[in-house]
Amino acid sequence: MLLVVLEHDRGALGEPAREALTFGRTLAAKMGAEMHALAIGAGAAATEQVAAVSGDHGAARLYTVDHDVLSDFGPEAWGQSLVQVIDALGPGAVLACGSERGNEVMAQAAARLDWPFVANCTDVTPPAGAGREWSLTRIQWGGSLLEDATLAASGTALLTCGLHSVASTPVEPAPAAPPETRAVPVDLGAELARTVVKDRVVLDAGVTLPTAPVVVGGGRGVGSAEGFAPLEELAELLAGRVGCSRAVTNNGWRPHSDQVGQTGTRIAPEIYIASGISGAIQHWVGAMGSKHILAVNIDPEANMVVKADWAVIGDLHQVIPAMNAEIRRRRDRP
Amino acid sequence: MRILCCVKRVPAPGAKINVTADGLAVDAAHLGFTTSPHEECGVEEAVQIAERTGGEVTVLTLGPAEAAEQLRYAASVGARHGVLVSTDGSAWDPQRTARALTAAIRSLEADGGVFDLILFGNESADSGGFQVGVRVCHALGRPIVNGIKGIETEGSGVRARREIDGGFEVYELDLPAALGVKEGINLPRYPTMRGRLASKKLEITTFEIEADAGDQSLVRLHRPTETVSQTVILGAGPDAAPAAVDVLEELGLV
Protein backbone atom coordinates (compact mmCIF):
# COMPACT_ATOMS: atom_id res chain seq x y z
CA MET A 1 0.00 0.00 0.00
CA LEU A 2 1.12 3.56 -0.74
CA LEU A 3 0.19 6.04 1.96
CA VAL A 4 -0.17 9.72 0.98
CA VAL A 5 0.15 12.25 3.81
CA LEU A 6 -2.34 15.05 3.16
CA GLU A 7 -1.20 18.60 3.77
CA HIS A 8 -4.03 20.65 5.19
CA ASP A 9 -4.56 23.78 7.24
CA ARG A 10 -6.94 23.01 10.10
CA GLY A 11 -9.00 20.74 7.91
CA ALA A 12 -8.80 22.63 4.61
CA LEU A 13 -6.90 20.84 1.83
CA GLY A 14 -5.00 22.87 -0.74
CA GLU A 15 -3.16 22.20 -3.95
CA PRO A 16 -0.17 20.35 -2.34
CA ALA A 17 -2.45 17.54 -1.10
CA ARG A 18 -4.06 17.21 -4.54
CA GLU A 19 -0.65 17.12 -6.23
CA ALA A 20 0.60 14.41 -3.86
CA LEU A 21 -2.50 12.29 -4.56
CA THR A 22 -2.08 12.78 -8.32
CA PHE A 23 1.63 11.84 -8.17
CA GLY A 24 0.80 8.99 -5.79
CA ARG A 25 -1.79 7.49 -8.15
CA THR A 26 0.90 6.86 -10.78
CA LEU A 27 3.34 5.53 -8.18
CA ALA A 28 0.76 3.19 -6.61
CA ALA A 29 0.02 1.75 -10.07
CA LYS A 30 3.76 1.09 -10.58
CA MET A 31 3.88 -0.59 -7.15
CA GLY A 32 0.80 -2.65 -7.99
CA ALA A 33 -0.67 -1.32 -4.75
CA GLU A 34 -3.67 0.61 -3.48
CA MET A 35 -3.30 4.26 -2.58
CA HIS A 36 -4.56 5.29 0.84
CA ALA A 37 -4.55 8.79 2.33
CA LEU A 38 -3.70 10.01 5.83
CA ALA A 39 -5.03 13.16 7.49
CA ILE A 40 -3.25 14.09 10.69
CA GLY A 41 -5.03 16.08 13.39
CA ALA A 42 -6.37 19.59 13.68
CA GLY A 43 -9.95 18.76 12.86
CA ALA A 44 -9.17 17.06 9.54
CA ALA A 45 -11.13 13.99 10.59
CA ALA A 46 -14.29 16.01 10.80
CA THR A 47 -14.26 17.68 7.40
CA GLU A 48 -16.12 16.28 4.45
CA GLN A 49 -13.75 18.05 2.06
CA VAL A 50 -10.81 15.87 3.17
CA ALA A 51 -12.68 12.64 2.41
CA ALA A 52 -14.18 13.97 -0.82
CA VAL A 53 -10.90 15.29 -2.25
CA SER A 54 -9.03 12.11 -1.25
CA GLY A 55 -11.59 9.96 -3.04
CA ASP A 56 -11.85 12.22 -6.08
CA HIS A 57 -8.06 11.96 -6.50
CA GLY A 58 -7.93 8.20 -6.23
CA ALA A 59 -7.46 7.27 -2.56
CA ALA A 60 -9.21 3.98 -1.80
CA ARG A 61 -9.23 4.61 1.94
CA LEU A 62 -8.74 7.55 4.30
CA TYR A 63 -7.04 7.18 7.66
CA THR A 64 -7.41 9.89 10.26
CA VAL A 65 -5.40 10.59 13.38
CA ASP A 66 -6.48 12.87 16.18
CA HIS A 67 -5.08 13.74 19.59
CA ASP A 68 -5.07 16.70 22.01
CA VAL A 69 -1.53 17.63 20.92
CA LEU A 70 -2.69 17.86 17.28
CA SER A 71 -4.80 20.98 17.84
CA ASP A 72 -2.83 22.72 15.09
CA PHE A 73 0.19 22.00 12.89
CA GLY A 74 3.34 20.95 14.72
CA PRO A 75 6.24 19.31 12.89
CA GLU A 76 7.31 17.03 15.75
CA ALA A 77 3.76 15.95 16.65
CA TRP A 78 2.92 15.28 12.98
CA GLY A 79 6.19 13.39 12.46
CA GLN A 80 5.66 11.22 15.54
CA SER A 81 2.05 10.53 14.48
CA LEU A 82 3.29 9.41 11.08
CA VAL A 83 5.83 7.08 12.71
CA GLN A 84 3.05 5.37 14.69
CA VAL A 85 0.79 5.11 11.63
CA ILE A 86 3.63 3.52 9.63
CA ASP A 87 4.14 1.06 12.48
CA ALA A 88 0.43 0.20 12.53
CA LEU A 89 -0.17 -0.05 8.77
CA GLY A 90 3.22 -1.06 7.30
CA PRO A 91 2.89 0.81 3.99
CA GLY A 92 5.34 0.03 1.17
CA ALA A 93 5.93 3.75 0.73
CA VAL A 94 4.83 7.05 2.21
CA LEU A 95 4.51 10.10 -0.03
CA ALA A 96 3.84 13.75 0.76
CA CYS A 97 4.05 16.88 -1.36
CA GLY A 98 7.47 18.55 -1.20
CA SER A 99 6.05 21.75 0.24
CA GLU A 100 7.64 23.37 3.28
CA ARG A 101 5.41 21.40 5.66
CA GLY A 102 5.51 18.18 3.65
CA ASN A 103 9.29 17.98 3.60
CA GLU A 104 9.48 18.94 7.26
CA VAL A 105 7.02 16.29 8.46
CA MET A 106 8.72 13.56 6.40
CA ALA A 107 12.14 14.62 7.74
CA GLN A 108 10.77 14.43 11.30
CA ALA A 109 9.44 10.92 10.70
CA ALA A 110 12.66 9.81 8.96
CA ALA A 111 14.82 11.17 11.80
CA ARG A 112 12.76 9.25 14.38
CA LEU A 113 12.96 6.02 12.38
CA ASP A 114 16.59 6.59 11.29
CA TRP A 115 15.44 5.74 7.77
CA PRO A 116 16.41 7.48 4.55
CA PHE A 117 14.06 10.14 3.14
CA VAL A 118 14.26 11.40 -0.43
CA ALA A 119 12.85 14.90 -0.92
CA ASN A 120 11.36 16.45 -4.05
CA CYS A 121 11.16 13.51 -6.45
CA THR A 122 9.97 13.99 -10.02
CA ASP A 123 9.99 10.31 -10.96
CA VAL A 124 9.99 7.17 -8.81
CA THR A 125 10.46 3.53 -9.84
CA PRO A 126 9.81 0.93 -7.15
CA PRO A 127 12.13 -2.09 -6.75
CA ALA A 128 11.64 -4.92 -9.22
CA GLY A 129 10.52 -8.26 -7.77
CA ALA A 130 11.97 -8.99 -4.37
CA GLY A 131 14.62 -6.24 -4.61
CA ARG A 132 14.71 -3.30 -2.24
CA GLU A 133 16.43 -0.68 -4.37
CA TRP A 134 14.25 2.19 -5.54
CA SER A 135 15.33 4.34 -8.49
CA LEU A 136 14.43 7.99 -8.29
CA THR A 137 14.89 11.28 -10.00
CA ARG A 138 14.83 14.27 -7.68
CA ILE A 139 15.23 18.02 -7.78
CA GLN A 140 18.52 19.75 -7.02
CA TRP A 141 19.23 23.48 -7.26
CA GLY A 142 15.51 24.20 -6.99
CA GLY A 143 14.92 22.43 -10.32
CA SER A 144 17.88 23.66 -12.38
CA LEU A 145 19.44 20.22 -12.06
CA LEU A 146 18.01 16.76 -11.62
CA GLU A 147 19.64 13.98 -9.62
CA ASP A 148 19.21 10.30 -10.45
CA ALA A 149 19.54 8.43 -7.18
CA THR A 150 18.97 5.06 -5.62
CA LEU A 151 17.32 4.41 -2.29
CA ALA A 152 17.90 1.21 -0.34
CA ALA A 153 14.75 1.09 1.78
CA SER A 154 14.73 -1.55 4.49
CA GLY A 155 10.97 -1.24 4.94
CA THR A 156 8.91 1.75 3.94
CA ALA A 157 10.29 4.24 1.39
CA LEU A 158 9.82 7.84 2.57
CA LEU A 159 9.40 10.28 -0.33
CA THR A 160 8.07 13.67 -1.30
CA CYS A 161 7.21 14.79 -4.83
CA GLY A 162 8.50 18.18 -5.93
CA LEU A 163 5.99 21.01 -5.49
CA HIS A 164 4.23 21.60 -8.85
CA SER A 165 6.12 18.66 -10.42
CA VAL A 166 2.69 17.37 -11.48
CA ALA A 167 -0.54 19.23 -12.17
CA SER A 168 -3.29 17.85 -9.96
CA THR A 169 -6.11 15.99 -11.70
CA PRO A 170 -9.05 14.07 -10.26
CA VAL A 171 -9.78 10.51 -11.39
CA GLU A 172 -12.31 9.98 -14.16
CA PRO A 173 -14.98 8.93 -13.81
CA ALA A 174 -15.41 10.30 -10.30
CA PRO A 175 -15.92 7.60 -7.64
CA ALA A 176 -19.55 6.98 -6.69
CA ALA A 177 -18.95 7.26 -2.94
CA PRO A 178 -16.33 8.83 -0.67
CA PRO A 179 -13.60 6.46 0.53
CA GLU A 180 -14.01 4.36 3.64
CA THR A 181 -12.59 6.26 6.63
CA ARG A 182 -10.77 4.68 9.56
CA ALA A 183 -9.31 6.32 12.65
CA VAL A 184 -5.83 5.20 13.71
CA PRO A 185 -5.12 5.65 17.45
CA VAL A 186 -1.83 7.34 18.39
CA ASP A 187 -0.09 7.80 21.71
CA LEU A 188 1.70 11.16 21.77
CA GLY A 189 3.69 12.68 24.61
CA ALA A 190 2.60 16.12 25.84
CA GLU A 191 6.15 17.44 25.19
CA LEU A 192 5.46 17.31 21.43
CA ALA A 193 3.30 20.41 21.90
CA ARG A 194 6.54 22.42 22.15
CA THR A 195 6.66 22.90 18.37
CA VAL A 196 2.91 23.29 17.69
CA VAL A 197 1.76 26.61 16.16
CA LYS A 198 0.94 28.99 19.03
CA ASP A 199 -0.55 31.90 17.14
CA ARG A 200 -1.18 33.32 13.68
CA VAL A 201 -0.73 36.75 12.12
CA VAL A 202 -2.92 37.44 9.09
CA LEU A 203 -1.33 40.09 6.89
CA ASP A 204 -3.14 39.90 3.66
CA ALA A 205 -6.65 38.71 3.12
CA GLY A 206 -6.51 39.40 -0.62
CA VAL A 207 -4.81 37.60 -3.48
CA THR A 208 -1.35 36.32 -2.54
CA LEU A 209 1.73 35.65 -4.63
CA PRO A 210 1.64 31.81 -4.59
CA THR A 211 -1.97 31.71 -5.77
CA ALA A 212 -2.25 34.91 -7.88
CA PRO A 213 -3.64 34.30 -11.40
CA VAL A 214 -1.42 37.09 -12.75
CA VAL A 215 2.03 38.06 -11.50
CA VAL A 216 3.79 41.19 -12.75
CA GLY A 217 7.48 40.72 -12.03
CA GLY A 218 10.22 43.32 -11.92
CA GLY A 219 13.96 42.83 -11.85
CA ARG A 220 17.13 44.87 -11.70
CA GLY A 221 15.92 46.71 -14.81
CA VAL A 222 13.22 48.47 -12.77
CA GLY A 223 16.04 50.45 -11.17
CA SER A 224 14.44 51.63 -7.91
CA ALA A 225 11.61 51.09 -5.43
CA GLU A 226 9.64 53.92 -7.06
CA GLY A 227 10.10 52.32 -10.46
CA PHE A 228 7.60 49.63 -9.43
CA ALA A 229 4.62 52.03 -9.54
CA PRO A 230 3.56 51.17 -13.13
CA LEU A 231 4.00 47.45 -12.34
CA GLU A 232 1.72 47.87 -9.32
CA GLU A 233 -0.80 49.57 -11.56
CA LEU A 234 -0.70 46.76 -14.13
CA ALA A 235 -1.08 44.14 -11.39
CA GLU A 236 -4.07 46.00 -10.00
CA LEU A 237 -5.70 46.27 -13.45
CA LEU A 238 -5.32 42.50 -13.89
CA ALA A 239 -6.28 41.56 -10.29
CA GLY A 240 -2.78 40.13 -9.80
CA ARG A 241 0.26 40.69 -7.64
CA VAL A 242 3.70 42.20 -8.07
CA GLY A 243 6.68 39.87 -7.77
CA CYS A 244 10.40 40.54 -8.09
CA SER A 245 13.84 38.99 -8.47
CA ARG A 246 16.51 38.43 -5.82
CA ALA A 247 18.48 41.45 -7.08
CA VAL A 248 15.49 43.62 -6.16
CA THR A 249 15.15 42.35 -2.58
CA ASN A 250 18.93 42.47 -2.10
CA ASN A 251 18.76 46.15 -3.06
CA GLY A 252 15.95 46.69 -0.57
CA TRP A 253 13.48 47.90 -3.24
CA ARG A 254 10.79 45.34 -2.31
CA PRO A 255 10.16 43.10 0.73
CA HIS A 256 11.47 39.54 0.50
CA SER A 257 7.88 38.24 0.57
CA ASP A 258 7.58 39.53 -3.02
CA GLN A 259 10.59 37.52 -4.23
CA VAL A 260 9.99 34.89 -6.87
CA GLY A 261 12.75 32.27 -6.97
CA GLN A 262 14.57 29.36 -5.42
CA THR A 263 14.88 31.16 -2.09
CA GLY A 264 11.57 32.98 -2.48
CA THR A 265 8.11 32.00 -3.70
CA ARG A 266 7.27 29.44 -6.41
CA ILE A 267 4.53 30.96 -8.51
CA ALA A 268 2.10 29.23 -10.87
CA PRO A 269 -0.04 31.99 -12.44
CA GLU A 270 -1.98 31.90 -15.70
CA ILE A 271 0.52 34.49 -16.95
CA TYR A 272 3.78 35.88 -15.60
CA ILE A 273 4.69 39.28 -17.01
CA ALA A 274 8.45 39.42 -16.38
CA SER A 275 9.86 42.89 -16.91
CA GLY A 276 13.48 43.88 -16.62
CA ILE A 277 14.37 40.37 -15.44
CA SER A 278 17.31 38.61 -17.09
CA GLY A 279 16.21 35.17 -15.85
CA ALA A 280 19.10 33.81 -13.79
CA ILE A 281 18.48 30.25 -12.61
CA GLN A 282 17.72 31.36 -9.06
CA HIS A 283 14.74 33.33 -10.42
CA TRP A 284 13.76 30.97 -13.22
CA VAL A 285 13.09 27.99 -10.94
CA GLY A 286 10.54 30.08 -9.04
CA ALA A 287 8.87 31.26 -12.25
CA MET A 288 8.91 28.11 -14.38
CA GLY A 289 5.58 26.90 -12.98
CA SER A 290 3.83 29.78 -14.81
CA LYS A 291 1.41 28.61 -17.51
CA HIS A 292 2.40 31.48 -19.82
CA ILE A 293 5.21 34.02 -19.76
CA LEU A 294 5.34 37.46 -21.36
CA ALA A 295 8.79 39.03 -21.10
CA VAL A 296 9.52 42.74 -21.40
CA ASN A 297 13.23 43.36 -21.77
CA ILE A 298 15.65 45.58 -23.65
CA ASP A 299 17.87 42.56 -24.34
CA PRO A 300 16.44 40.13 -26.94
CA GLU A 301 19.06 37.55 -25.86
CA ALA A 302 18.05 37.60 -22.17
CA ASN A 303 17.33 34.16 -20.73
CA MET A 304 13.82 35.24 -19.74
CA VAL A 305 13.06 36.42 -23.31
CA VAL A 306 14.33 33.14 -24.79
CA LYS A 307 12.17 31.12 -22.40
CA ALA A 308 9.04 33.26 -22.72
CA ASP A 309 5.99 32.53 -24.87
CA TRP A 310 5.80 36.18 -25.90
CA ALA A 311 8.20 39.08 -25.61
CA VAL A 312 8.24 42.81 -26.10
CA ILE A 313 11.73 44.14 -26.74
CA GLY A 314 11.95 47.53 -25.10
CA ASP A 315 12.32 49.59 -21.98
CA LEU A 316 9.82 48.48 -19.35
CA HIS A 317 9.51 52.09 -18.15
CA GLN A 318 7.82 52.86 -21.48
CA VAL A 319 6.20 49.53 -22.32
CA ILE A 320 4.37 48.88 -19.02
CA PRO A 321 2.72 52.35 -18.83
CA ALA A 322 1.68 51.96 -22.48
CA MET A 323 0.08 48.59 -21.64
CA ASN A 324 -1.74 50.15 -18.69
CA ALA A 325 -3.09 52.91 -20.92
CA GLU A 326 -4.16 50.38 -23.56
CA ILE A 327 -6.04 48.23 -21.00
CA ARG A 328 -7.84 51.32 -19.70
CA ARG A 329 -8.71 52.44 -23.22
CA ARG A 330 -10.24 49.04 -24.06
CA ARG A 331 -12.18 48.89 -20.81
CA ASP A 332 -13.58 52.37 -21.35
CA ARG A 333 -14.86 51.39 -24.80
CA PRO A 334 -18.63 51.40 -24.84
CA MET B 1 23.57 33.65 24.44
CA ARG B 2 25.66 30.85 22.95
CA ILE B 3 24.64 30.43 19.31
CA LEU B 4 25.71 27.92 16.66
CA CYS B 5 25.05 28.44 12.98
CA CYS B 6 25.57 25.59 10.48
CA VAL B 7 26.43 26.63 6.92
CA LYS B 8 27.20 24.94 3.60
CA ARG B 9 29.69 25.94 0.92
CA VAL B 10 28.05 25.84 -2.53
CA PRO B 11 29.04 26.93 -6.04
CA ALA B 12 27.67 30.30 -7.19
CA PRO B 13 26.14 29.65 -10.62
CA GLY B 14 24.92 32.25 -13.10
CA ALA B 15 22.49 31.60 -15.93
CA LYS B 16 23.32 27.90 -16.34
CA ILE B 17 24.77 25.05 -14.28
CA ASN B 18 27.09 22.53 -15.92
CA VAL B 19 27.80 19.05 -14.66
CA THR B 20 31.21 17.28 -14.61
CA ALA B 21 31.84 14.51 -17.18
CA ASP B 22 31.22 11.75 -14.61
CA GLY B 23 27.89 13.37 -13.67
CA LEU B 24 28.71 13.33 -9.97
CA ALA B 25 29.17 17.03 -9.30
CA VAL B 26 28.54 20.54 -10.53
CA ASP B 27 31.38 21.65 -12.79
CA ALA B 28 32.73 24.46 -10.64
CA ALA B 29 35.93 25.02 -12.64
CA HIS B 30 34.79 28.50 -13.67
CA LEU B 31 32.56 29.27 -10.72
CA GLY B 32 33.12 31.01 -7.43
CA PHE B 33 31.82 29.56 -4.18
CA THR B 34 29.51 31.12 -1.65
CA THR B 35 27.53 30.35 1.48
CA SER B 36 24.13 28.81 0.69
CA PRO B 37 21.71 31.81 0.81
CA HIS B 38 19.46 30.71 3.68
CA GLU B 39 22.54 30.07 5.80
CA GLU B 40 24.14 33.40 4.94
CA CYS B 41 21.03 34.93 6.51
CA GLY B 42 21.39 32.44 9.39
CA VAL B 43 24.85 33.82 10.18
CA GLU B 44 23.54 37.41 10.07
CA GLU B 45 20.62 36.48 12.36
CA ALA B 46 22.93 34.71 14.80
CA VAL B 47 25.23 37.74 14.93
CA GLN B 48 22.29 40.12 15.46
CA ILE B 49 20.92 37.98 18.30
CA ALA B 50 24.37 37.78 19.89
CA GLU B 51 24.71 41.57 19.63
CA ARG B 52 21.29 42.08 21.25
CA THR B 53 21.62 39.56 24.04
CA GLY B 54 25.36 39.48 24.60
CA GLY B 55 26.91 36.27 23.47
CA GLU B 56 29.02 34.55 20.88
CA VAL B 57 28.44 32.93 17.54
CA THR B 58 30.14 29.74 16.44
CA VAL B 59 29.88 28.80 12.77
CA LEU B 60 30.14 25.17 11.69
CA THR B 61 30.49 23.64 8.25
CA LEU B 62 31.01 20.20 6.78
CA GLY B 63 33.07 20.12 3.61
CA PRO B 64 36.52 20.17 2.08
CA ALA B 65 39.40 22.27 3.45
CA GLU B 66 38.34 25.08 1.07
CA ALA B 67 35.13 25.51 3.11
CA ALA B 68 37.32 27.45 5.59
CA GLU B 69 36.63 30.34 3.17
CA GLN B 70 32.95 30.33 4.24
CA LEU B 71 33.93 30.17 7.93
CA ARG B 72 36.22 33.17 7.46
CA TYR B 73 33.46 35.06 5.67
CA ALA B 74 31.16 34.39 8.65
CA ALA B 75 33.92 35.63 10.95
CA SER B 76 34.24 38.80 8.85
CA VAL B 77 30.61 39.66 9.67
CA GLY B 78 30.83 38.83 13.36
CA ALA B 79 31.08 35.09 14.07
CA ARG B 80 33.67 34.40 16.77
CA HIS B 81 34.55 30.72 16.34
CA GLY B 82 34.90 28.48 13.27
CA VAL B 83 34.55 24.71 13.11
CA LEU B 84 35.25 22.55 10.06
CA VAL B 85 34.10 18.95 9.82
CA SER B 86 36.48 17.90 7.14
CA THR B 87 35.58 15.74 4.10
CA ASP B 88 37.26 14.93 0.82
CA GLY B 89 34.76 17.22 -0.91
CA SER B 90 32.57 14.44 -2.33
CA ALA B 91 28.81 14.75 -1.83
CA TRP B 92 27.72 13.17 1.47
CA ASP B 93 24.19 11.83 1.77
CA PRO B 94 21.86 13.50 4.31
CA GLN B 95 22.03 10.74 6.95
CA ARG B 96 25.83 10.67 6.88
CA THR B 97 26.02 14.47 7.03
CA ALA B 98 23.62 14.56 9.98
CA ARG B 99 25.56 11.86 11.85
CA ALA B 100 28.84 13.76 11.46
CA LEU B 101 27.31 17.11 12.47
CA THR B 102 25.67 15.52 15.51
CA ALA B 103 29.00 14.06 16.64
CA ALA B 104 30.74 17.41 16.14
CA ILE B 105 28.08 19.36 18.07
CA ARG B 106 28.15 16.84 20.93
CA SER B 107 31.89 17.29 21.16
CA LEU B 108 31.64 21.12 21.07
CA GLU B 109 28.93 21.06 23.76
CA ALA B 110 30.90 18.66 25.96
CA ASP B 111 33.80 21.14 25.94
CA GLY B 112 32.03 24.49 25.92
CA GLY B 113 28.49 23.92 27.19
CA VAL B 114 25.15 23.60 25.44
CA PHE B 115 24.32 25.98 22.58
CA ASP B 116 21.21 27.96 23.54
CA LEU B 117 20.21 28.31 19.92
CA ILE B 118 21.26 26.41 16.80
CA LEU B 119 20.40 27.87 13.38
CA PHE B 120 20.32 25.84 10.18
CA GLY B 121 19.38 26.94 6.70
CA ASN B 122 15.94 25.65 5.72
CA GLU B 123 17.58 23.69 2.90
CA SER B 124 20.87 23.87 1.02
CA ALA B 125 20.89 25.65 -2.34
CA ASP B 126 22.48 22.71 -4.15
CA SER B 127 21.39 19.22 -3.01
CA GLY B 128 18.31 20.49 -1.13
CA GLY B 129 17.69 17.40 1.02
CA PHE B 130 15.41 19.27 3.48
CA GLN B 131 16.36 17.07 6.46
CA VAL B 132 19.86 17.48 7.94
CA GLY B 133 18.86 20.00 10.62
CA VAL B 134 15.84 17.94 11.64
CA ARG B 135 17.93 14.76 11.94
CA VAL B 136 20.63 16.49 13.99
CA CYS B 137 18.07 18.01 16.36
CA HIS B 138 16.24 14.73 16.85
CA ALA B 139 19.55 13.07 17.75
CA LEU B 140 20.32 15.91 20.19
CA GLY B 141 16.78 15.81 21.63
CA ARG B 142 16.25 19.45 20.72
CA PRO B 143 13.11 21.02 19.24
CA ILE B 144 13.36 22.49 15.73
CA VAL B 145 10.93 24.34 13.48
CA ASN B 146 11.74 25.08 9.84
CA GLY B 147 10.73 27.86 7.46
CA ILE B 148 11.53 30.65 9.94
CA LYS B 149 11.59 34.27 8.73
CA GLY B 150 11.58 36.13 12.04
CA ILE B 151 13.10 35.50 15.49
CA GLU B 152 12.55 37.39 18.74
CA THR B 153 14.30 36.34 21.91
CA GLU B 154 12.23 36.51 25.08
CA GLY B 155 13.76 35.56 28.43
CA SER B 156 14.51 31.85 28.28
CA GLY B 157 12.78 31.30 24.96
CA VAL B 158 12.34 32.40 21.35
CA ARG B 159 9.32 33.49 19.37
CA ALA B 160 9.70 32.48 15.74
CA ARG B 161 7.60 33.47 12.73
CA ARG B 162 7.04 31.23 9.75
CA GLU B 163 5.68 32.69 6.54
CA ILE B 164 2.54 31.08 5.17
CA ASP B 165 0.27 32.19 2.35
CA GLY B 166 -1.09 35.56 3.51
CA GLY B 167 0.54 35.80 6.92
CA PHE B 168 2.65 34.14 9.59
CA GLU B 169 2.48 31.23 11.99
CA VAL B 170 4.02 31.93 15.40
CA TYR B 171 5.98 29.32 17.35
CA GLU B 172 7.29 29.68 20.91
CA LEU B 173 10.19 27.48 21.95
CA ASP B 174 12.05 27.25 25.23
CA LEU B 175 15.84 27.25 24.93
CA PRO B 176 17.86 25.30 24.09
CA ALA B 177 16.20 25.08 20.68
CA ALA B 178 16.95 25.11 16.98
CA LEU B 179 15.41 26.85 13.96
CA GLY B 180 15.67 26.34 10.20
CA VAL B 181 15.77 29.85 8.73
CA LYS B 182 15.02 31.21 5.29
CA GLU B 183 16.39 34.04 3.24
CA GLY B 184 14.41 37.22 3.90
CA ILE B 185 14.69 36.95 7.68
CA ASN B 186 17.17 39.83 7.36
CA LEU B 187 19.39 41.56 4.83
CA PRO B 188 22.93 40.29 5.54
CA ARG B 189 25.53 42.98 6.16
CA TYR B 190 28.69 43.36 4.13
CA PRO B 191 31.97 42.72 5.93
CA THR B 192 33.87 45.77 7.11
CA MET B 193 37.60 46.15 6.49
CA ARG B 194 38.20 45.51 10.18
CA GLY B 195 36.03 42.39 9.98
CA ARG B 196 37.98 41.11 7.01
CA LEU B 197 41.26 41.58 8.82
CA ALA B 198 39.96 39.87 11.96
CA SER B 199 38.67 36.92 9.91
CA LYS B 200 42.19 36.19 8.69
CA LYS B 201 43.16 35.43 12.28
CA LEU B 202 40.17 33.14 12.91
CA GLU B 203 41.34 29.91 14.51
CA ILE B 204 39.49 27.02 12.94
CA THR B 205 38.80 23.87 14.94
CA THR B 206 38.90 20.88 12.61
CA PHE B 207 37.17 17.55 13.20
CA GLU B 208 37.78 14.35 11.26
CA ILE B 209 34.66 12.28 11.81
CA GLU B 210 33.98 8.80 10.51
CA ALA B 211 30.25 8.68 9.84
CA ASP B 212 28.36 5.76 8.33
CA ALA B 213 26.92 6.39 4.89
CA GLY B 214 23.12 6.49 4.62
CA ASP B 215 20.87 4.63 2.23
CA GLN B 216 20.44 7.25 -0.50
CA SER B 217 23.10 7.22 -3.26
CA LEU B 218 23.76 9.70 -6.02
CA VAL B 219 23.90 8.08 -9.47
CA ARG B 220 24.29 11.13 -11.67
CA LEU B 221 23.31 14.74 -12.11
CA HIS B 222 21.81 16.06 -15.31
CA ARG B 223 20.06 19.10 -16.63
CA PRO B 224 16.32 18.77 -17.17
CA THR B 225 15.25 18.60 -20.80
CA GLU B 226 13.90 22.01 -21.57
CA THR B 227 10.84 22.48 -23.65
CA VAL B 228 12.21 24.93 -26.17
CA SER B 229 9.54 27.55 -26.60
CA GLN B 230 9.45 29.59 -29.75
CA THR B 231 9.22 33.06 -28.32
CA VAL B 232 6.80 35.19 -30.28
CA ILE B 233 8.24 38.71 -30.46
CA LEU B 234 5.24 41.02 -30.23
CA GLY B 235 7.19 44.12 -31.19
CA ALA B 236 9.57 46.74 -29.88
CA GLY B 237 8.96 49.52 -27.39
CA PRO B 238 5.63 51.06 -26.34
CA ASP B 239 4.19 50.56 -29.83
CA ALA B 240 3.97 46.86 -28.99
CA ALA B 241 1.56 47.53 -26.10
CA PRO B 242 -1.64 46.77 -28.10
CA ALA B 243 -0.19 43.40 -29.19
CA ALA B 244 0.76 42.62 -25.58
CA VAL B 245 -2.73 43.54 -24.39
CA ASP B 246 -4.19 41.33 -27.16
CA VAL B 247 -2.40 38.41 -25.49
CA LEU B 248 -3.92 39.32 -22.12
CA GLU B 249 -7.34 39.67 -23.75
CA GLU B 250 -7.06 36.21 -25.33
CA LEU B 251 -6.38 34.81 -21.86
CA GLY B 252 -9.58 36.49 -20.66
CA LEU B 253 -7.80 38.92 -18.36
CA VAL B 254 -8.82 42.24 -19.88
Account of the protein in words:
The complex is a heterodimer of chains A (334) and B (254). Chain A has 334 residues and is α/β, with parallel strands linked by helices. Chain A folds into two domains: 2-195, Rossmann fold; 214-332, TPP-binding domain (Rossmann fold), CATH 3.40.50.1220. Chain A has helices at residues 15-31, 48-56, 75-89, 100-113, 229-237, 246-250, 281-287, 303-307, 316-332, and strands spanning 2-5, 8-9, 12-13, 35-40, 61-65, 93-98, 117-125, 133-140, 145-152, 157-162, 180-183, 199-202, 214-218, 241-244, 271-275, 293-297, 310-313. Chain A has a nine-stranded mixed β-sheet, with helices on both faces. A five-stranded parallel β-sheet of chain A has the order 14-13-15-16-17. Chain A has a two-stranded antiparallel sheet with strand order 2-3. In chain A, helix 3 packs across helix 4 (100-113) and helix 5 packs parallel to helix 9. The termini of chain A are far apart. With 254 residues, chain B is of the alpha/beta class. Chain B has a single domain (2-250), classed as Rossmann fold (3-Layer(aba) Sandwich). Chain B is 28% helix and 32% strand. Chain B has helices at residues 37-53, 68-76, 94-112, 132-140, 193-200, 241-250; strands at 2-7, 9-12, 32-35, 56-63, 81-86, 117-121, 144-154, 157-164, 167-174, 177-181, 204-207, 216-222, 232-236. In chain B, the strands form two sheets. A nine-stranded mixed β-sheet of chain B has the order 9-8-7-10-6-1-4-5-11, sandwiched between helices. A two-stranded antiparallel sheet of chain B has the order 2-3. The model of chain B has no long low-confidence stretch (mean pLDDT 95). Chains A and B meet through helix 4, strand 7, strand 8, strand 9 and strand 12 of A and helix 3, helix 4, strand 7, strand 8 and strand 9 of B. Strand 17 (310-313) of chain A pairs parallel with strand 13 of chain B, so a sheet runs across the interface.
